[in-house]
Amino acid sequence: MQRMILSVPCPLGTESITAHQVRELGYETSEVVDGCVSFEGDEEAVALANINLRSGERVLIRMGQFKALSFTELFDNVKKLPWENFIGKNDAFPVKGYSLKSKLFSVPDCQSIIKKAIVQRLSEKYNISWFDETGPVYRVQFSIMKDIVSVYIDTTGAPLYKRGYRAEGVLAPLRETLAFSMIDVSRWRGDRPFIDPFCGSGTIPIEAALYALNIAPGINRSFESEKWGMFKEGHAYSDAREEARDNEQRDNKVEIFGSDIDPDAVSLAIANAKKAKVADKIRFFKADVKDVRAFKDKGIVMCNPPYGERLMDKKSVERLYAVMGRKFAEYENASKLILTSYEDFEKFYGRKADKKRKLYNGMLKCNLYMYFPEKTL
After folding, report:
1. Does some domain include residue 232?
2. Of 39, 99, 355, 369, which one is least surrounded by beta carbons within 10 A?
């Protein structure tokens, strides 16, 4: 088994959540920085992380990190890295990345230099001059931030927020990784009623069900690294899937609801829940938010309602937030968590949040506004 430094990019604001999940898998985090959590592990760790992490975006093998102010430094440092430990004679290794606030700012030039350095290293190791690149794919990623270069190999393929249950979506979808992060922040553990009155394609209720039943988010999808020699020769992925299935708690009783004013969204949410195999745990129904009956027990109201950049004009959004403020007040014993990028949300909702947390849905900066019953403050 190879020991590797594994890096897990995650949505900004969810680093502590992702780090906690890594530790729950049995690994100590070695670094937690903006948008990324790193730890040391082997092939087993790669498989476990890909299948089980709920808020991570992908699992990367960090090949190296160094400072480079010139293309010569970039080439020489990349060439020093042990690419032959992963990439075989016939394997494909496309290169992509980005550069920010760095002297080496041309991304196409950096891609070309990194590719040439890897080719030269492998040519010398394998004593060949041409690579057909017809085998499994080892996607090389790089980032250059303030002249510090980080180089990785991606083990995941399609990002981890693509669980496999949402083949289609409605406009401006909420990423599954962020939906789970909202659930984690709420401290809901499946023990109280849960409702999303703007459910759209069902992401928040489905993620709630997967979490409450301890169903691994990656259990029903495949990963790029499963095709690699180091994994085909072993049982890391099959063992990780077997362990994940053994840990499922599908008999847990939960009360999860999702509603939306759009009947097409409700139909799509039901279809997605069926793909995720949790349709029997969620009740979806068509309703305007003002008509949704409030539960009086302790519970959670969680949603990602329309906002300025998304689906509605400004005046309509402001009227909707006022309706939400009045309606959600009826949920006297419930916690309310509302994600929006609309800066004046509290003004129109009619109450300052008890707590506020900055999160990102892709590149869109949002705030998670949290309201709690008075007795829990």
Report:
1. no
2. 355
